[in-house]
Batch of 4 targets.
Target 1
Amino acid sequence: MPDTTTTSPPIDPALEEAMAISLRGVEELLPREEWLKKLQRSKATGVPLRIKLGLDPTAPDIHLGHTVVLNKMRQLQDLGHQVIFLIGDFTSLIGDPSGRNSTRPPLTPEQIKHNAQTYYQQASLVLDPSKTEIRYNSEWCSSLGSTGMIQLAAKYNVARMMERDDFHKRFHGGQSISIHEFLYPLLQGYDSVALKADMELGGTDQKFNLLMGRHLQQEYEQEPQCVLTMPLLVGLDGVDKMSKSKNNYIGITEDANVMFAKTLSISDELMWNWYTLLSFRSLQEIADLKEQVAQGRNPKEVKVLLAKEITTRFHSAAAAEAAEQDFNNRSKGGVPDEIPEVTLDGAPLGIGNLLKSAGLTASTGEANRLIDGGGVRVDGAVISDRGLKLDAGVYVVQVGKRKFARVTLQA
């Protein structure tokens, strides 16, 4: 009797690699089967897939947390696909309500223009600018007009909109939801229609908006995009997501020495998550490094490799080498070759006021807390007396491991 069982044909090795790269570090890829079909079609036709990432220029600077999604874009770009860096200059006028417990204040056109000027320039430190399509959603959103906006709003209902987690919580918590906030996910979804996106990327907090793109593309009789969400990067504290408001971030335009030292400050456990989400090393290389640590290699050595990779990406290999030397010098109690020069009047001056006036602490209260914790040195000596007053002279003042100033104190 003949064997009538069927087996699925083996996946082409190139497609298998493309799927592995697509799935690296992701939270979700929906639906996987559709993405594989899109990859197969692209390979067969030679037509690149259109990969969309939309970012509202709510702030002028990007930190490493933002680059998690940008890294994924770069990986897909290196596979030969067309990435579209969409600046949400129109949607920024509304303000993204994702994850908010209150209405987000909209930005002014002037703020948006200022922030957008540096946004793509910084993103280009990760993406290949020569292979990146830059778009602004004011191109199509501004021309919608009142009629087009009403027609777009008719594509979705209020009941489904209220299923969105933040809207649901705010409604049942008796907190205000403005009608214009419902327009944000609709317009973000409409961006996918305008761009004919094959995939849209975002953080886990963007899932509702990304799925809206799928829905609206179907409403406009387009092939729906796939959705890829990336986890939110845990910040330097090892607890909360990286955020400027939490002060647990590394800005991608920060000084190379600061970037290197901050990376080395993360825990050994968190290091592996950062390797997965931030490093361009292969998963096999990362697995090999992890095995080496398990076999006794000092984890700090492996963390140094990560710090140098990140610093090289946003500065240069030479800057990363210099940052490592600077860090080693500081860890041995040495003073960097170049430190800020500050001249202050008012000698004799209390140590707390000196630290604040030199810009080494935000307040005298913070200065006192650092002194109590043994985190302040003057000319290499640990200061423990809050009441210390310094006479006129020149002092090398150190706060923590990374902040230095050469202070000239005058009467």
Target 2
Amino acid sequence: MDTFYSPDPARERALLVGVSSSPELNRTTVEEYLDELAFLADTAGADVEATIIQERAVKDPAWLIGRGKVEEISHIVKGGEIDLVVFDDDLSPVQARNLEKVLECKVLDRTELILQIFALRAKSAQAKMQVELAQLEYLLPRLTRMWTHLSKQKGGIGTKGPGETQIETDRRLVRKRISQLKKKLDGVMLQHATQTSDRRGTPRVALVGYTNAGKSTLMNRLCPSAEAYAENRLFATLDTRTRRLELKINKTVLLSDTVGFIRKLPHHLVECFRSTLDEVLQADFLLHVIDISHPGYEDQMQVVRRTLEEIGVKHNHIIEVFNKIDAVEDPAVLRGLREKYPDAVFVSAVRGLNVQALKDAVSDFVGRDYRERSLRTHVSNYKLIGYLYDHAEVLEKRYVDEDVILRYRAHVNSLQRIDARVKSFGHEEQHVA
């Protein structure tokens, strides 16, 4: 059992529990999971005092872990060292109820801890509704335990639930609230689609990646006016933030920062944050930000890929961005990765290293969807000429008698509007091979 101490008495003291079932889930992997769980606990406001791993081939349906290990944890808790016990695996309602009864302290699982962090991080009305919906759907089968739990709450982790007024409600009222939240979120999505309808002509790029990979820092580096919240904490960003990124003259993309992914991301959160993740689905391509300094970055890459598949991303329009290269001491590691991922971009968002190379890569990627056109019109048709200069990249201008011939290039998303404007002036465009 590894022990950690903190001098801050105001924070709750937590004990973390993991279960290893070799060879499917070996002890080393469980230790890595618990390291991440410790980061989650710290983000939620607790100091990890101890971790316990039990080797167990079959999980106990009543306790998850063995009864002997439960007694060991109970001894530690009643010794006054622990306020909170957090399990890395999801607990069934029966397991949670049995454990709380014996341990006589708050017992959370990984999903409930993540829900708590989301509740603390949610700032916008939409994010708060999404978190409340996820909490209610998760807690619906656990109502009996939850009401007892909240009636004795003293604050701290696990107590920022949908609200104390829910204590006396029954399942019918909770289901009614869930239905109301879903309708409200559908309305928010419809309103958002209306407000952003004018963006359809502009290529869209979304930042995705494991939580704390540096997406918000990179967003601020690419778009200094973004003012995206960046902190060395998990899930620092819940609300999607979109800004214009100017690449070249009349070559602009809309860059969106999105919520980070994590191993064992609760299914309720994936479903409830689908309106936020729509930015990922609607993006023309993605920037997959990877924390190269993390020892488990390859596993994190796989988690992100699986999550993208789960939410419905079916294309391979992805640029892999290896971040925090300044934290890698061995140059051979970077050389090996550049050989393995020749199309990836290696940056340091904090120090601004290779950010221009990333912009160039984005510009080249966007350029794949640009098409060339040519147009001949009278030189006095300044409105149409001005429109093309404003909405396309004019490559060449030639004069023939009193006419001007413009060769221009525009993104496929913009061509429909440009074609309509050109035809409104009685012209036909000529496609350039």
Target 3
Amino acid sequence: MGLVKWRIAGSTRENGLETHLPRYHADLGGTRHVFDDLRALLAAASPARSGDMLAGVGAQSAEERVAARFALADLPLAAFLNEVVIPYEKDEVTRLIVDNHAASVFSAISHLTVGGFREWLLSNAVGGAEIAAIAGAITPEMAAAVSKLMRNQDLIAVARKIEVITRFRNTIGLTGRLSVRLQPNHPTDDPAGIAASILDGLLMGSGDAVIGINPATDDADTTATLLELIDEIRLSCAIPTQSCVLAHVTTTLELVRRGAPVDLCFQSIAGTQAGNRGFGIDLALLREACDATQSLQRGTVGQNVMYFETGQGSCLSANAHHEVDQQTLETRAYAVARAFDPLLVNSVVGFIGPEYLFDGKQIARAALEDHFCGKLLGLPMGVDICYTNHAEADGDDSDTILTLLGVAGVSFIIGVPGADDIMLNYQSTSFHDALYIREVLGRRPAPEFEAWLENIGLSDQGRIADHLPPALIADHIPLLRDARG
């Protein structure tokens, strides 16, 4: 196997952190593999993926990848508190991670190496409560590091232990539950088309996570119209769910000031300050939006109001990756998310394209990593199981990933009519897919939403009934007719 070592090589310190970074090495088969710093070590230890090759940071051979994993496995977790992958003084996400580290509970795992942390997480003696108790002590880089040592089954076995519960008008994330975002996108934001898709999803038991529309434009008036449409449908049938039009956070802020029916505030986020700048945001703006949305007090069972989306490769696509591998950067985005106690977080895992995740195998691995790392850090993780039409993936890959994530205890998935998003032009999962995974794994909707389905006669013994509830149809036909104008 060879000798595996890590050592500090002549470092200086600034702001309490290493600025001249360590060197790591592992000897395999008579060859010494050297990794100049933690950033290089993490990148080389990552499973192969096209984005890291595009960035020039991935391992150059399978042997180098194995060597990096040996070196990483022997690295003490405490080393991550002395070294950062992006300088503290140059990146507000790094400052967020360092300044908010829960040092008081780190003692529970401070004696472990990364490899030892993996064994601790997998131990039958460690359950979800024990993992949740130290979530604040786990930095994103620690989570990313341990995930790189895990097989797919390890990622599933640990993630399914962890229960992350959030609330707004219903309760999301309970064990044995699987929620669905009803995504009724339309290429022209046509209210009639959107209303028809909403009705379609409700009739198949989707929508308990959120009824969430990606608008074709970021126009405030259009966004307000769509929010009012969802709110009318929700109120007319007393549906215990929440709405969101996934406009830019600045648009949502404007609509809060206008008095529009804003339930959740959405924003795409990244794992670096420069990546977030590419989205037109910073942490201060997110805090302002979170506070403004919470001030509306529209929740009934809770006030988790933020909805974040992420995706491996977003920093690289903005040239904001600092030569850090895409999975570590993705996990750093989760540090941004957890600072705002969100209702929902999901990785839109295959959306950016094959330049970052080439095929179904790479998408599946990324989906399990993202879900595992998010839950390890205490987030209510969902996954948009998706791919673009130029990726080496198909519906069978989606079925496989959906099943794996269902076993892993994913909090929510996406429901799109026919699994084909005609506005964003990508392939996701359908309302029927959600019915499949709930059926085969015995998962149920959020409890408040499930009770509503039963009350209107749409659910029978936990299953969607064969007949359509006349009351629901009667209530919504006028809405559809009115939407057509």
Target 4
Amino acid sequence: MLPPPDLCSILRIPFLILLLSLPAKASSFNLTLPNQHPYPEAVAHEVQRKVNASLSRRELLSTTVHDQAQCLTGNPIDDCWKCDPNWANNRQRLADCAIGFGQAAMGGKGGQIYMVTDSSDHDAANPTPGTLRHAVIQDEPLWIIFAANMQIKLKHELIVNSFKTIDGRGANVEITGGGCITLQYVSNIIIHNIHIYDCVPSGNTNIRSSPTHVGWRGKSDGDGISIFSSRNLWIDHCALSHCTDGLIDAIMGSTAITISNSFFTHHNEVMLLGHDDKYLPDSGMQVTIAFNHFGLGLVQRMPRCRRGYIHVVNNDFTEWKMYAIGGSANPTINSQGNRYIAPPDPDAKEVTKRVETDEKDWSDWNWRTDGDMMVNGAFFVPSGEGLSAQYARASSVEPKSSGLIDQLTLNSGVLGGPRDNSVSISYGGGSTTGDSANGHGGSGSAPGGDGDFFGMIFGSGAPPPPPPPTASALVFLALLIILISCMITNQGALL
């Protein structure tokens, strides 16, 4: 007579059935971020609706109210606040003017005004009151402004706490030096009207991240703005150039981001969105890139995307040396109403680049061009479902002609100050020989590179807990635990 089967033997069959029923590709798991918008096409639709409404309002007022029409550009962000001659008396109105995926960024709305009066940065661990570093580490919401024109030369990364607005309107504010700006595990940040350039690696030192916490930081990459596991962010009317690594890098599950009205020049690897092809949480990354000028001396990555949904709308691409928009690991790219001006190089006319991926693998990626203007032989290679149901909501409002790009990007960059550093510096961001499918941005906080990797979580900026596991996931985990115990008991004889 055969011995009765033990528990391990009984569980082998349902375990194998469950294992075989799992999706063949990990990317088909429903991996979403807690702050991911469930209908990204609706957000794209709303951006176009606001642009169309602003342009229509400008056309109407140009025939009725001449003075107001003078200030209107049709850019919905600028038209929201810039026409008020007394805007400086109500600075926080700016927080209501964002569009796209980062439109919920509150910044320091509702908080006190903090005026930066001291441009120094002597001690990153013990910042002086009145400095920008002292302002950005506070726990409470703050709307940070500047008493005068100033150049802030950072010694190390400027680590920003949650619920802060850095508002450079009314002054010419330059940030340069070590770091530069780091947004790590934070939310609700607005960075407006700041000139960021010549950012270089620094670190291996203690840096204060809040009034009660100082942590050891490894060496940073030298990004202009480094975004790491953060959400609800809005970068508007900034000018960025000449940094060692990226001008803006967003990685490690960051989402709900808008980058608008900014001026990018003199750089190799401009903007990275996504940590690594294998980092599945970046599937929830959602970024709006609107009304920006990509200009002189740029090479590639405007942006370079991994996973996620990227809406590129009404930007002016006037120069690239390799490509404008690139990606890997199946990102969705919705390009609407942009102007792409190709370089003279006959081998660099293509706007798009699927980075180190065979056509058979990227042919079903959803990359779409809608209403874009192609100049000087530029061409965009679309793929995927095109005008199928995925884009039906986004395309139900036709984008305004890209011929209006001059008008929409008229004031891109810092307002009332220089948009570009005229100093001639070799391109940052490494070799210009090509992009890498597996390279990723670091931000000085990669495992092994920073002794305080998980310690620098700032108060209200701590990432939200992950969603609870599904019932099938719990069953799978329970079976797996029991079977591992069996393997140990039976010296690995499981199957």
